[in-house]
Structure prediction request, 369 residues.
Amino acid sequence: MLSKKQSQELVLPANISNMKLKIYLTLFLLFLVAVKNVCARELTPSERVARQSILYATGTNYIEKAYYAGGKILRWNKSEFPIKVYVENTVNAPNYYVYAFARSVLIWKTAMKDVLSIKFVNLESEANIVFKVVNNKKYIRQVENNEDSILAYTSPTIKKGKLEKMYIYVYDKGRDNKYYRPYQVLNIAIHEFGHALGISGHSNDASSIMYPLLNAGDEKKSAFISRTDINTLTLLYKVTPDITNGDKSKETGNISAEILLGDEEEREVIAIKQALEEIRIKPTDCLSRLKLAVLYEERKEYQKMLQYIKEAEPLAKTKDEQYSTYVAYAYYYYSQRDKKNAKLYLDKALLIKDDESLKTLERFINLLR
Ligand SMILES: [Zn+2]
Prediction:
């Protein structure tokens, strides 16, 4: 546990420069792994009391914003601990990038030492979480009049419903085409590593490291891991995960997500509210619109699904965002039994990334008449 004094030691060097920094999380559409819980039910009064007391004992947290798509719990399996981290040695950026990545891991390791176990590995193939530096020109599509700058993103690899890896991609340079300064890289790395540990969403609390805007002008708002961030992760690792990398039954003493977070209907309603709030905070965000599209697909509200995919499309700034948009279109047209358009968008997605999960969709589309 961290005392107030100890957590102060985590305060990062100084303020952030003049630009408005936005850090996004890539959403990997969950259509295929979404397993509908058929028998959603009301919680009993004693389950509601259990939920309240767990939330109370945890202290302030933003667990409802930490969900993965559709209110799902995605995190590393405790039976597979330690969480293994690989930092790619890069020639694309100054040395301090790699040092900052490693330091961000150590900062989280210290903050979460009662809950998580984390170690470095020397091989990418053995790692759960991988840090990479990527070229900003190659990966970011410039969008006209877009004032946001994406600095980094974290994307999970999910195969057959199992979490395989989390890739943290940090762009080599900012929009000004200059390398980030050391403290900026560190702030970015700590935020992204929070995603990689399982906090899929963002906090509304500006003092949280998982707040999406690292705001420039305010020197007092240096980015550091807050009590609320620690509470949220602590709680996340007490809840039975929906998507994880190991055997769920090997983890004992977990709380069921249903008791803690509500049944599927409740979680969907919360998730829709969160996504709408994200759009309000970040009007040019592509992924929160795709999240809504996924939610409306689950609810079989296809007109709304299409509306949000159409809104997301021109806002896609990264290849992953474009890929996710095409996959969403393919699913939409599949749901409408429109084989021609479903295939068209599937092919567009395959051109960006030949992902194994698309094979199942391809098979289903081919079965359409
Ligand atoms: Zn983020």
The chain has 14 helices and seven strands. The CA atoms of residues 86 and 124 lie 6 Å apart.
